[in-house]
Description:
By secondary structure, the chain is an alpha+beta fold. The protein contains 13 helices and 15 strands. The strands form four sheets. The chain has a five-stranded antiparallel β-sheet. Strands 1, 2, 3 and 4 form a four-stranded mixed β-sheet that branches. A three-stranded mixed β-sheet has the order 10-11-12, with helices on both faces. Strand 5 and strand 6 form a beta hairpin. Helix 9 runs antiparallel to helix 11. The radius of gyration is 35 Å and the shape is elongated.
Amino acid sequence: xxxxxxxxxxxxxxxxxxxxxxxxxxxxxxxxxxxxxxxxxxxxxxxxxxxxxxxxxxxxxxxxxxxxxxxxxxxxxxxxxxxxxxxxxxxxxxxxxxxxxxxxxxxxxxxxxxxxxxxxxxxxxxxxxxxxxxxxxxxxxxxxxxxxxxxxxxxxxxxxxxxxxxxxxxxxxxxxxxxxxxxxxxxxxxxxxxxxxxxxxxxxxxxxxxxxxxxxxxxxxxxxxxxxxxxxxxxxxxxxxxxxxxxxxxxxxxxxxxxxxxxxxxxxxxxxxxxxxxxxxxxxxxxxxxxxxxxxxxxxxxxxxxxxxxxxxxxxxxxxxxxxxxxxxxxxxxxxxxxxxxxxxxxxxxxxxxxxxxxxxxxxxx
Length: 366
């Protein structure tokens, strides 16, 4: 074995970004395998590589015993003392057994094993690079499309966007650049696999963190996200500092910040509401853009009855119940919506609320 082999290993390690020691260990394992295969030996052997002189030596390792039952694994105490009088029972003796033409045979046999180890090491490097991107947004380029998946190039790896994680309103085209949410990174027998999504609520959350500096800096906090991808979403935000307008921060000047996110999500409507620990306020806000007259809270089963103006009933419920459904998902409270007339008939609307609402209604239609 020549020093050129060690130089090649070092260069390969630098090229692939793999520690040279990993490749040396792989080479040692390959040489041991080659020795046992080509010389039909079951002996416990050790390979010693000397990078300085570029040499390779094979040593057979045998245990010193009183009585030998396996000539390949054991050596008698008498035989051991002929080698060195200081040997005792249970000691390990190493005897060099390097064949003359072993370098040529080993090089051929080691090639495949080293290649495999290089591939495994490369996979490990890729996995360690991407595992920290879980629950993060990455930008990729669509490489190809089939009926089940959209294949997205994320740099060193290709990720599959399954149909279940695609936005139903989105038309994907090869070479399009898209942002995806990384839901999970796994190191499988086939190499690292990245699971991505365009419909996950986490995508909306991360996009706001990227677009709104106040969220990134922790001044404004995203408390909850509810999303029906491609159609409509709701996001609840909160600021500890009363002088900060969390909703206004997310909307941005002339709606610029939220519009950038809407554009990225191909027109998905986004309602930004202010979070409150008071369920009456929170549920009222969550039903935006509908106006709310009163919210009746049942703490025991975490449910609410929401009374809205008659003319706002359909808006509060939303198309196919979407507004109410998203509001319930956002707040974590069950929401039963009733019109003012229905609530009055059931005796749910207090006189004070009824009077106050009459004034509001009068103002609205003046």
